[in-house]
Write a structure and sequence with these properties.
The protein is mainly beta and about 90 residues long. Helix content is about 0%, strand content about 50%. The strands form 2 sheets. An 8-stranded mixed sheet has the order 3-2-1-9-10-8-7-4, with no helix packed on it. A two-stranded antiparallel ribbon has the order 5-6. The protein is globular, with a radius of gyration of 12 Å. The two termini are about 15 Å apart.
Amino acid sequence: MQKGRQFVMTSTTISTNTQSNEAALETGPVVGYFLGHEIHAWVRVPEGVYVYDGIAPGPRPGMVDMTKLKSDEICISPGLCYKLDPSI
């Protein structure tokens, strides 16, 4: 998995910021909101299932410092950090 991947989520699909194609996405229940966007308990992307881990680090809300993400984390716009769940 590529370190520091950022995703942009629409209603039922996501795409990486480096690819134009969209990938299938499943999401868990909504557990909150951030900057008007739903926070899902978990998301399923082709690499596996990721659980919500908090707001991604950045200089201000919605801006992400991708160098701070770990190799087992992904970021979904507008700055939601999800961590790979190896048990699923």
